[in-house]
Amino acid sequence: MTKEGPLCCNTSFSHSKDKPEKPVQQAEDAAYLRRRRIVSLISLIGFVIFSIVFAATIGQKLIEFLADGKAFRAWVEQQGILGPLTLVGIMVLQVVIAIIPGEAVEIGAGYAFGAIPGMLLCLVGAALGSVIIYGLTKQFGIRMVEAFVSREKIQSLKFLQNTKKLNILIFILFFIPGTPKDLFTYFIGLTPMKLRTFLILSSIARIPSVISSTIGGEALGLQNYTFAIAVFILTAAISGIGLLIYRKITIHSAGKRENQ
Question: Closest Cα partner for 10 from 200, 143, 178?
């Protein structure tokens, strides 16, 4: 694994014009596609296993108590430590595999545990998932990231090479609702940012988007559907604005790279 500047990226993105290096590049591309297929298959299998286990345990009770959030929450409390551990595990899986929508997990957390406890459990799960990704990325480098994230998306994050503004950029990107936070989590291991710094910045910045989802989930559990819908509509609107801001950032970054 070679290092170039602040990012631990190798030369897999630089297509050399020298003819002798073309077979090497083709071999790297083939290995890249093979890693992507393997990870996609493992992710699909993991999701299927999770769905079966969830349906056989919590899912059945959730359907039974779907119209009675208080009864479902009482049942969750009867499970003791198993309930919170299950949610944390689901959140870790969501961050690492990124197939399960994070918002759905957060809404479910609010429904089952309440707004504040649900938010705290989601933040713990997200932090643990981030630790796993950070450790694997530091160990295996860009090839680990390419297995989960396409090269095009990695290229779109080149603006994070600015190490002087890295802390503030990460905080803003995690603070803005609707941005691909799982993508940032995979990329951060390629930067000089320390794990402790990343966990503090990302956990604090996640709070507004997570709490909005858990508040909506709690409202659903209390059958306050009007308030829940209002929260979801407001969250969706803010997320839409966040996506537009993120898109402008990436387009501006791409334009600067082309002009260099």
Answer: 143
* Model confidence pTM above 0.70: yes
In DSSP notation, 132-145 reads HHHHHHHHHTHHHH
Torsion sign across C-alpha atoms 79, 83, 85, 90: positive
pLDDT tens-place string over residues 166-197 = 888 899 889 987 788 888 888 888 888 999 99
Amino acid at 141: G
- Cα gap 13→243, rounded to integer Å: 26
Domain locations along the chain? 11-259
16 by DSSP, 3-state: which? coil
Q: Is the dihedral angle over the CA atoms 145, 129, 210, 216 positive or is it negative?
A: positive
Residue 6 has pLDDT above 50, yes or no: no
Interatomic CA distance for residues 215 and 120, integer angstroms: 12
Cβ atoms of 191 and 80 within 8 Å: the answer is: no
The pLDDT, as a whole number, for residue 162 is 64
State yes or no: pLDDT of 150 exceeds 60. yes
